[in-house]
Design a protein that fits this description.
The complex is a heterodimer of chains A (about 375) and B (about 140). Chain A is of the alpha+beta class and about 375 residues long. Chain A is about 35% helix and about 20% strand. In chain A, helix 2 (about 15-25) packs antiparallel against helix 7 (about 180-215). The longest helix of chain A has about 35 residues, at about 180-215. In chain B, a hairpin with a 4-residue loop joins strand 4 (about 80-90) and strand 5. The two termini of chain B are about 25 Å apart. Classes of the chains: A alpha+beta (about 375), B alpha+beta (about 140).
């Protein structure tokens, strides 16, 4: 998940919104089996796996300062491409710069003045003008990461027999961390995370190009800065207090997001006073939130918080209740312009299929594991 | 008996289905069809390209997981959708299959959701009175 600012207001963007969304729909491929615009050789793809966003920036897909606004500065160093199968490479090599489908999206949003909850922190994160336009991107490592998952699920099934591990759900296959199987997976998973950071980075590049084309200004002029980029599905070695003592632990964040507090050594200098920006995606109808990490999250949840509003209705049920074409028209009437590869896919993402994002954010605030900064309302959306 | 049916109440964010077959081959074919039905309107796929798949399974479940994973792999690596499958499985669980399909075209195939992986959550292949039954949850 990543969030990007602009210094444009809704008033400036609105007249050309359709053109903008159409342009992004064209340049950021989405949907089943989409191929990305970044063509890489196998050896370059290995560099992406091991060097992540650093590779992107070195190859012209982004700015040096983007790096410090990404979890792990866009590179998880434990990545080792030799632990990734040829199959995963073949599956992922064409997917750099693709959005995917399901709940993945690219959204143009507005920070309305009355939706700013913490003015001071919002300003520090680059949200400073009433009705300011921002962009949110939700996508991951695409088929590449899933192929790594599929490959290692097989390996772990064997490993569980070998290490005599019994589990209730076979999808939660595991291996002890300090074994060959455990270490190999950890290194391969880091490659998937680096590919995900890179996928979102090259998409950011396309967004900057798209805005420049439509508004006739450079991305620098429009202050198209990266607010932050966080992973949703990842396991990481971190230091946390357990029973009063500092310990190295593996934190699995599946469907959750890191939410580090002010002063955490992993955060870049510009977040030392504020804490880490946290992005929580809601449905495409109701909007999303920008929050900030807290000390309480370190104490209670291993520096973690929720990652999205979460579904409340199954995909099949949503499709029964909502028609994509109708939803598209209804949303346009409400000022949200959507382009989607698939009408049934769109219906499944209807606002009513999701929990109320405000309830989710209120719960997080009450639990103290992250602090709301501002709500972001959708005005344009690209979907797979 | 329906070849396959989707189960709306099993997985909220993913897609679950149950498939049947008189033989193991028919079960595998129906599972493959259900998987591509999630991604596109399978009736619109023409059998222009064929792909051969050979696999060896340790169990029926293990073989079905690998077979579906292989089809999902081909969908991404070669941008293909399939809707016809000739499958033979011998008693030692050696699978030989030919999948028929064509290159993905969003407009033509009315593409829907991308299937990213087969999960092992509740994954089951069982022998029933009338043949075989499988329960599968696909990661979306």
């Amino acid at each position: 998940m990543r969030l990007i600012t602009t210094n444009l207001t809704y008033k400036e963007v609105q007249p050309r919104l359709k053109e903008l969304i159409d342009e992004l729909f064209r340049t950021v491929p989405a949907g089943v089996g989409a191929k990305g615009f970044v063509k890489v050789t196998k050896s370059q793809f290995k560099e992406v796996m091991e060097n992540g966003v650093k590779w992107c920036v070195e190859n012209g897909y982004g700015w040096e300062e983007d790096l410090e606004a990404i979890e792990e500065h866009g590179v998880i160093k434990s990545a080792d491409a030799s632990k990734v199968s040829e199959k995963a490479i073949t599956r992922g090599i064409n997917q750099m710069g693709t959005l995917g489908s399901g709940n993945h999206y690219l959204e143009v949003q507005v920070a309305h003045a009355d939706n700013i909850i913490d003015k001071e922190i919002a300003k520090k994160f680059g949200i400073h003008t009433p009705e300011q336009v921002v962009i949110m991107v939700h996508c991951g490592s695409r088929g590449f990461g899933h192929q790594i998952g599929t490959d290692y699920l097989r390996i772990f099934e064997e490993a569980m027999r070998k290490y005599n591990i019994h589990i209730r759900d076979r999808e939660l296959a595991c291996a002890p961390f300090q074994t060959n199987e455990g270490q190999d997976y950890y290194k391969a998973m880091a490659c998937a995370a680096n590919m995900a950071f890179s996928n979102r980075q090259v998409i950011l590049h396309r967004i900057r190009e798209g805005f420049s084309k439509i508004f006739g200004k450079s991305a620098e002029e429009m202050e198209m800065n990266l607010v932050y980029d966080v992973a949703h599905n990842i396991a990481k070695v971190e230091e946390h207090k357990v029973d009063g003592k500092k310990k190295k632990v593996i934190v699995h964040r599946k469907g959750s997001t890191r939410a580090f507090p002010p002063g955490h050594p992993e955060l870049a200098a510009r977040f030392q006073k504020t804490g880490q920006p946290v992005i929580i995606g809601g449905s495409m109808e109701t909007g999303s939130y920008l929050l900030v990490g807290t000390e309480k999250a370190m104490e209670d949840t291993f520096g973690s918080t929720a990652h999205g509003s979460g579904r409340t209705m199954s995909r099949t049920q949503a499709k029964r209740e909502v028609r994509g074409e109708q939803l598209l028209k209804d949303m346009e009437r409400r000022g949200i312009y959507v382009r989607s590869v698939s009408m049934p896919g769109l219906a499944e993402e209807a606002g009513k299929a999701y929990k109320d994002i405000n309830d989710v954010v209120d719960t997080l605030a009450e639990a103290g594991i992250s602090k709301p900064v501002c709500q972001l309302r959708p005005v344009g959306n690209v979907k797979g | 008996m329906k070849p396959y049916k989707f189960l709306p109440d099993i997985a909220t964010a993913d897609i679950a289905f149950e498939a049947n077959g008189k033989s193991l081959e028919e079960l595998f074919r129906n599972c493959a069809l259900a998987t591509f039905e999630v991604m596109a309107d399978v009736k619109r796929i023409e059998p222009k390209i064929t792909k051969k798949i050979s696999l060896k399974g340790k169990s029926e479940e293990n073989l079905l997981y690998d077979f579906l994973s292989e089809l999902i792999f081909l969908k991404d690596s070669e941008s293909l959708l399939f809707n016809k499958f000739d499958i033979s499985i011998d008693k030692d669980l050696n699978l030989e299959a030919t999948a028929y399909g064509e290159t993905i075209n969003h407009e033509k195939h009315h593409t829907k959701l991308d299937v990213k992986a087969v999960t092992l959550h509740m994954f089951r292949v069982e022998k029933i009175k009338t043949g075989w039954k499988a329960t599968v949850i696909l990661d979306i």
